[in-house]
Specification:
The protein is α+β, with helices and mostly antiparallel strands and 342 residues long. It contains nine helices and 15 strands. The chain has helices at 2-19, 47-68, 80-84, 94-109, 119-134, 144-151, 183-197, 292-304, 307-315, and strands at residues 24-30, 38-44, 90-91, 159-162, 167-170, 203-207, 210-214, 223-228, 239-245, 249-254, 259-262, 265-268, 284-289, 321-325, 331-333. Strand 11 (259-262) and strand 12 form a beta hairpin. The longest helix has 22 residues, at 47-68.
């Protein structure tokens, strides 16, 4: 009887192991949110299971996109567009309040080099770039006097965020918000944390250069993430480095991503708050840390800081590493970055 019981248990275990499928690798793409491409890579036992997770991610991306956009009004939503175009206090979703509170912290962390209150300046650049892309024959830079006038209305202290009331107030009626330096990374981080809370693992999110790993791959190995070469003419080296990630974020800001030409010179979208012009210190800056939100804010700031100040900032932060690509193509690493390189 004892032998029969043991054999029965062994048979059940064998059948159970045979019936359980090994996780398969799936990929999904979206192009509708945050004006960029989204790639989701994940391991699931079935396509239906993977699709269900992707739908959670897609729905969350859509919600964050609608809340954080400054270009579109949506009925029934008090988003950043509504904040920018309202007088006085505006009641908003908690997701806006929390993001803006984080953005103010990022401002102080980066000594003002990541400033979501620069909307008045960035809108002039946005309009000039949009016109230049559509009409390259008449592309022009924004007028510097107008940029200087707009910069007088970028004081983040005049952004009042009330967490208890869930309200936002702009005390300067000529100030406007542009959360492009933090919103995408913040949304990716919130989505990743929610997936982790649901027990989901084995996924890699890439939302326009904001990469966030969610756990290891099913075989227990880390993800491999390529850091793009900003030199688009290089045919042999598409990536400057391959780094390993388990639950880290890898975020890159670069001059090669969004730009337009004026008199044969390219002008990109990362505007230095000190000069009111596109930053020229680097080709790209990549940050590795535990939070996509922090990585997004830091990569923007580091692009505008000179290398000495940026390096000092990174070395003062625990669990944060960075890689700088200089204008001549040379590469500098923070003290611990190379430990991530495969």
């Amino acid at each position: 009887m004892k032998k029969l019981l043991i054999c029965t248990i062994a048979l059940l275990l064998l059948l159970s192991s045979c019936s359980k499928k090994e996780p398969e690798k799936f990929t999904e793409y979206y192009f509708d949110y945050f004006d960029t491409a989204t790639t989701i890579v994940g391991y699931s036992e079935s396509r239906d299971e993977f699709d269900a997770v992707c739908e959670k991610i897609r729905a969350a991306l859509e919600e964050y996109h609608r809340l954080y956009t400054i270009y579109t009004r949506y009925d029934g939503i008090n988003n950043l567009y509504k904040v920018n175009n309202s007088d006085g206090e505006v009641t908003v979703d908690k997701k806006i309040v929390d993001m803006l509170a984080f953005a103010k912290e990022a401002y102080y962390l980066t000594d003002g080099n990541t400033n979501i209150a620069m909307g008045s300046v960035l809108s002039l650049w946005h309009d000039a770039r949009t016109h230049g892309e559509k009409h390259p024959e008449s592309a022009a830079l924004p007028d510097m006097e107008r940029l200087k006038e707009a910069s007088l209305h970028t004081d983040i202290e005049k952004l009042i965020v009330d967490k208890e009331k869930s309200t936002v107030t702009l005390l300067d009626d000529k100030m406007s918000l542009d959360a492009g330096a933090v919103a995408k990374g913040y949304a990716v981080e919130m989505i990743a944390q929610n997936l982790e809370s649901d027990g989901i693992s084995g996924y890699l999110l890439n939302v326009g250069g904001n990469v966030r790993a969610i756990g290891l791959r099913p075989d227990g190995t880390k993800w491999t993430v390529g850091i793009e070469n900003p030199d688009s003419t290089s045919k042999d080296d598409a990536f400057l480095a391959l780094v390993s990630a388990e639950s880290e974020a890898i975020v890159t800001s670069g001059s090669y991503q969004r730009y337009y030409y004026v008199d044969g010179k390219a002008y990109h979208h990362i505007i230095d708050p000190k000069t009111l012009m596109p930053g020229e210190n680097f080709r790209s800056v990549s940050v590795i840390c535990q939070s996509s939100a922090i990585g997004d804010a830091l990569s923007t700031a580091l692009f505008c800081l000179d290398y000495k100040k940026g390096s000092a900032l990174i070395e003062s932060l625990e669990g944060v590493e960075a890689m700088w690509v200089m204008p001549n193509g040379e590469i500098e690493f923070s003290s611990g970055f190379e430990s991530y390189i495969k």
